[in-house]
TrEMBL record:
<dbReference type="InterPro" id="IPR009075">
    <property type="entry name" value="AcylCo_DH/oxidase_C"/>
</dbReference>
<feature type="domain" description="Acyl-CoA dehydrogenase/oxidase C-terminal">
    <location>
        <begin position="241"/>
        <end position="388"/>
    </location>
</feature>
<keyword id="KW-0285">Flavoprotein</keyword>
<dbReference type="InterPro" id="IPR046373">
    <property type="entry name" value="Acyl-CoA_Oxase/DH_mid-dom_sf"/>
</dbReference>
<dbReference type="InterPro" id="IPR009100">
    <property type="entry name" value="AcylCoA_DH/oxidase_NM_dom_sf"/>
</dbReference>
<comment type="similarity">
    <text>Belongs to the acyl-CoA dehydrogenase family.</text>
</comment>
<dbReference type="InterPro" id="IPR036250">
    <property type="entry name" value="AcylCo_DH-like_C"/>
</dbReference>
<dbReference type="Pfam" id="PF00441">
    <property type="entry name" value="Acyl-CoA_dh_1"/>
</dbReference>
<protein>
    <submittedName>
        <fullName>Acyl-CoA/acyl-ACP dehydrogenase</fullName>
    </submittedName>
</protein>
<keyword id="KW-0274">FAD</keyword>
């Protein structure tokens, strides 16, 4: 289940995509661990990586939609192979992933635009090896789209001059194209929004500084009377607002695969170290609590991969009448990334002081994994978004044709014509119980299903009051319980295609049972929780079904990781 550079071959993809991904793995392995670690510690800009990407046409191939590819059959926007690339980059370091990630975001407003001049320019810049940037956030407003102090003043010829500062802009130091969000000085409200394309090399584009103490470029910059020609405008009015949100829908999905890649590399290090380390005459892995923590970490990591891989299928099969991906997207941004933190913490408890050593990958993973849940509005923002889908998801199922596994080399062009970013509460879903029914013979799936059914009963019989619905702290506890049900559904849907055996699936759901019980206990303790809701919470605390044979079989899978991969020196 885990990415192993020694055997890596993404056979589910076409030949050229496989070649590029394998070449990327070879680039990092030939570069070696010593260089990887040193450049991280020295905070060196990764020119060699970007030179490789430019030479191979990596970003150009993966990030140019077919419509802008000038007939090149290898270029397309393919979420399946983009996810594979994101995982590989996360495996070798968050900083490499980050420059790719913000290039994705920078391209979002361009590929959603009908501005042929800028589309052509973006494609040419990618061919030349440039990276891109997405300039939405500001120091005073964060990523609040409703408030921006980037002001565009009309010049009378269809263009503007732009003045204002942007903050926390990835690649903003060096981007060939920066998609900048602002507002007109002469138009009030949403009709005044503008997205335009800028160039970081322009004399009126002033880099202030890098705002993070990292290898990556995360800039704050200021535009002073920057000339915005009519041909530089990507979107105006409500369309600019929608472009911002829809770009996040496409681009921030990559957070989940970055977390997966980071955890995979760290797991090889941690398991190998723990098993080879002798304590009181025995390997550290001989201790029961160590086995439990490493097995938990492994099962959680596999669950992260299963959910994320299945979410890709919903992205690729989306359309105007099927927007289920809009639930699964905040799930990947929130749930998968926070699970990544748990995976690292479990392993860190085992390897202890080793996790601080400068010459390990784990030391970097432990620091970087914290950033992913915080790169998209923090956990509570995504949980609040997830709650919008809860009524229809649980109680108002619709009929859809089954979504197939999508590894076909197709261009996911719908992602750049998503339309208005509204109506989330009206989106319908297929019956979540179907996936659970198909796995009802697996003991802990059945036990978790009891808890899920109980959650539906809570909402029917003791629904949050009007006052509770205004209490975000209370609602977040409810949101965590709901998210587990969604998480389990896609894990079950992907388990068959991924070849996951029932033993490992039972182990994953034993964890979900425990997590549900923990969140139920949290709900019980909230000040806003009523007596009836508190009684429900205690009544739905469950112990997982125990099985020594299952535990032993999963532990064998963990032990198989010992020495399976160590990065070349």
């Amino acid at each position: 289940m885990l990415l192993n550079p020694n055997t890596y071959d993404p056979a589910h993809l076409d030949d050229e995509s496989r070649r590029l991904l394998r070449a990327l793995v070879a680039f990092f392995e030939e570069r070696g661990k010593k260089t990887l670690v040193k450049s991280y510690i020295d905070r060196s800009w990764y020119d060699d990586f970007l030179e490789f990407s430019a030479r191979e046409g990596l970003f150009a191939t993966f990030l140019t939609p077919s419509a802008d590819a000038a007939g090149d059959p290898g270029k397309r926007w393919d979420t399946a192979r983009n996810a594979a690339l994101s995982e590989v980059l996360g495996f070798y370091g968050l900083d490499y992933w980050y420059t790719w990630q913000v290039t994705v975001l920078g391209l979002g407003p361009v590929w959603q635009s009908s501005n042929e001049v800028q589309r052509k320019r973006a494609a040419e810049l990618l061919d030349e090896g440039h990276v891109m940037a997405f300039a939405l956030s500001e120091r005073s407003h964060g990523a609040d789209i409703y408030a921006t102090d980037m002001i565009l003043t009309p010049t009378g010829d269809g263009g503007f001059t732009a003045s204002g500062a942007k903050y926390y802009i990835g690649n903003g130091n060096v981007a060939g194209l920066v998609s900048v969000f602002g507002r007109r000085s002469d138009v009030e409200g949403p009709d005044g929004y503008v997205f335009f394309a800028a160039d970081s090399r322009h004399e009126n584009y002033h880099l202030i500084k890098n705002v993070v103490n990292k290898q990556m470029y995360v800039s704050t910059f200021e535009l002073k009377d920057y000339p915005v020609r009519e041909e530089d405008v990507l979107h105006t009015g409500k369309a600019a607002f929608d472009a911002a949100l829809n770009t996040v829908n496409v681009g921030k999905f990559n957070l989940c695969t970055a977390a997966i890649g980071i955890c995979e590399h760290a797991m090889y290090e941690a398991v190998t170290h723990a098993h080879r380390r002798m304590l009181y005459g025995r390997p550290v892995t001989a201790f029961p609590h160590v086995r439990r923590e490493l097995a938990d970490a492994y099962a959680r990591l596999v669950a992260m991969k299963l959910f994320s891989d299945r979410a890709v299928d919903y992205f690729r099969s989306a359309g105007p009448d099927d927007r289920r991906y809009l639930l699964f997207n905040p799930m990947t941004k929130m749930k998968v990334t926070t699970e990544g933190e748990k995976v690292i913490d479990l392993m860190w408890d085992v390897i202890a002081a080793k996790g601080f050593e400068a010459d390990t990958y784990f030391d970097k993973a432990a620091m970087d994994i914290r950033g992913l849940p915080k790169l998209e509005g923090t956990v509570h923002v995504n949980l609040a978004l997830i709650l919008k889908f809860m009524p229809n998801y649980l109680f108002n199922a619709a009929t859809y044709e089954p979504v197939a596994t999508r590894h076909d080399p197709a261009d996911d062009e719908f992602l750049f014509r998503q339309g208005p970013a509204r109506g989330l509460g009206a989106i319908r879903f297929h019956d979540w119980r179907t996936a659970y029914d198909a796995a009802a013979t697996i003991p802990n799936v059945a036990r978790f299903r009891e808890q899920a059914d109980g959650f539906c009963a809570l909402l029917r019989e003791h629904a949050p009051s009007e006052e509770q619905q205004k209490d975000l702290d209370f609602l977040l506890a409810v949101g965590h319980l709901f998210a587990l049900i969604v998480y389990g559904q896609l894990i079950l849907e992907q388990a068959g295609p991924a070849g996951v055996d029932e033993t490992l699936l039972d182990e994953i759901f034993s964890i979900l049972v425990r997590d549900f019980s923990a969140y139920a206990t949290e709900l019980h303790g909230k000040a806003a929780t009523t007596e009836a809701q508190a009684a429900w919470a205690l009544a739905h605390v469950r112990r997982p079904v125990a099985d020594d044979k299952r535990d032993a079989a999963v532990w064998d899978q963990v032990l198989a990781l010992v020495g399976a991969y160590e990065m070349r020196p």
